[in-house]
Amino acid sequence: MKRNCRGMWGAEWARVEFDPSGISFNLTTSCWFRLFNQIEFVVQNFQELYAPEEARHVRAGFPSEWAKNLPG
Hints:
Blueprint: E1 10-12, E2 23-25, H1 29-38, E3 58-59, E4 62-63, H2 64-67
Antiparallel strand pairs: 1-2, 3-4
């Protein structure tokens, strides 16, 4: 499944064939930082996490090869 990043609010996963789990609400990275700034929450060490090189499976519908190149 591909979704636009612009205007992202969340995704409904309740009716998918793999790993059905309800609705997850997401903000873009810039929206998270804007929110943190508004509430005076300081981010000291932002890190993007990737799947390890030895990963060889699909999790939540994302193949490991994809997750090795794009942060989760």
